[in-house]
């Protein structure tokens, strides 16, 4: 092995690939991530990366090496799951599955975007659908379905409203309800702290003015 290649392999970034997040990938059967050669093909073909600061290779590398800030990085939500990287990775790494798993880990640890939280908490849990078609304001969805020759409502909890309760029980039994409750409390706490900090800032400014 040439000196250069050896130096490359020993770069700091390769020293620790046994991070807590990497272990979660392994537990989920996604240990193939460790075969990444950092070539950047995933980033190069990523349509989301062309329009945002999201970089697939960098996100995976950070996860692998234990940079936990990646769980709070909004970039991981910019992936459109188009599977281009999955098709092109020369090491056959299921890149898109990795990104989805990373999002799962982020949510399990309370890092969820506000719109996703509202959707999960107020829409999905209540109606059993991410995009409910049965509400008064959703006639357009029913019309659209009918224009394709489909029944206005899908054969899901919409047709069987009695099953919503079963779905909710299922969500409770896998811990999803508890997770949402925990995140809701955390968000309320953060909101109160932010309001308090803002009020203190205004008070300090007022005092400064009075001193002058
Ligand atoms: S394309 Fe595959 S091998 Fe190359 S950086 Fe991305 S994940 Fe790693
Ligand atoms: S699946 Fe996601 S990360 Fe992969 S190319 Fe598509 S948008 Fe980019």
Structural overview:
The protein is mostly helical and 212 residues long. The protein has 2 domains: 3-108, Fumarate Reductase Iron-sulfur Protein, Chain B, domain 2 (Orthogonal Bundle); 114-185, no CATH class. Helices cover 59% and strands 0% of the residues. The protein is built from 12 helices and no strands. The protein has helices at 3-9, 12-15, 20-27, 41-44, 47-51, 56-65, 84-88, 95-108, 114-127, 139-147, 164-173, 176-211. Helix 6 crosses helix 8 (95-108) and helix 9 (114-127) runs antiparallel to helix 12 (176-211). The longest helix is centred in the C-terminal third of the chain and has 36 residues, at 176-211. The N and C termini lie far apart (71 Å). The mean pLDDT is 88. The protein binds iron/sulfur cluster (2 copies). One iron/sulfur cluster (SF4) is lined by residues 45-48, 56, 79-85, 95-96, 99. The site of one iron/sulfur cluster has 15 residues, from helix 5, helix 7 and helix 8.
